Structure prediction request, 256 residues.
Amino acid sequence: MSSGPDKAPRVRVRTAGVTVVCLLAGLLFGISAAIARNNPQSTGARDLVGLIMARDGQVRELGEEAEFLRAQVQSLQEDVDNGAAKVATRRADALAPDVGLAAVSGTALQVTLDDAGYTIETLPEGYSVDDVVVHQQDLQGVVNALWAGGAEAIMVQDQRIVATSAVQCVGNTLYLQGRVYSPPYTVTAIGDPAAMQAALDADSVVSMYRQWADAIGLGYNVVEVAYAELPAYSGGVRPQFASVVEQVAPVEAPEG
Prediction:
């Protein structure tokens, strides 16, 4: 059986099929290219890459500029701080004696207060133990009067008094800045002795104490000291607690 006549049609059909496929592929590529050219998303992607690269360059430049400005600010701040520190140091040195943070020396007035020295057995008739001892208000009165008289610095016992100091008596003892003292109590103030003496004489609390001293023998002695040196205050100056303390009215001195 012959196969010649049957092969020719199959070859032609196969050739025609390949041609059609190629034409379709070319058409598809052409359509894809056209779509790509006209597609805004594709263009936007290329523009976005370029924008990112441009922004990256700008960020680098701005970063370098910011670093330069930061260095300048730091340099200027150091200059300002150094100048401010010097000014603050000078001001602190000038204020230190007034606030008690530096030692002070000079002419002084010294006031000594003491209990009357009675015992339970020797108390005068009509008096109690509280009548014959130095009280907190007595010491406070002396200290306040000395400040009013222009004292530049004050020391009670061996401790410098500052704005945060509290003169407190517990029973028959003085509690001052964490330490306990027994009478006699000595208050030393640097300043003009005449002005401070006048302030003591004019103070009502001190005058009342002097009347009690004359009546029952409480100790009260004032002397002028040609030279005294008061140490700097060594404690903390920041208050930790605050409370309202009712003013205690002085007790009237006995007549006679």
